[in-house]
Amino acid sequence: MSELANSVWVLIPIVAIIGGLGYAAFEKWSDIEEKRHAMQVASGGNDLQLRVRRREDDLVMLRTELNDTVKDVDDRLLRIEILLREVE
Fold first, then answer.
1. What are the tens digits of pLDDT across the range 13-57?
2. Rounded to 5 degrees, what angle do the CA atoms 55, 59, 63 make?
3. Cα separation of 4 and 11, whole Å?
4. What are the residue boundaries of the structural domains of the chain, listed by start?
5. Whether the model pTM is above 0.90
6. Among 24, 64, 66, 72, which residue is least crowded by beta carbons within 10 Å?
7. Strand, helix or coil at 68?
């Protein structure tokens, strides 16, 4: 029983550290998104500009996810074309 208790006491700080790091990363990400939105509003960014920037972000994400298989590339390119049509 004491081995179990010792292992629990070892796991508690590890779980707390991992949880703290996850929380800090989420806070940093949410702060960046809030600042970005505030800058867009302050600069007079309209809905079209927001949509274009989101589509650009989507395109960047899609490009980074591309792998070497032809089927995946064709599917991704089709999605990129659809996204570009939505922006126009």
1. 888 888 888 888 888 878 888 888 777 777 665 677 778 888 888
2. 170
3. 11
4. 1-45, 46-88
5. no
6. 64
7. coil
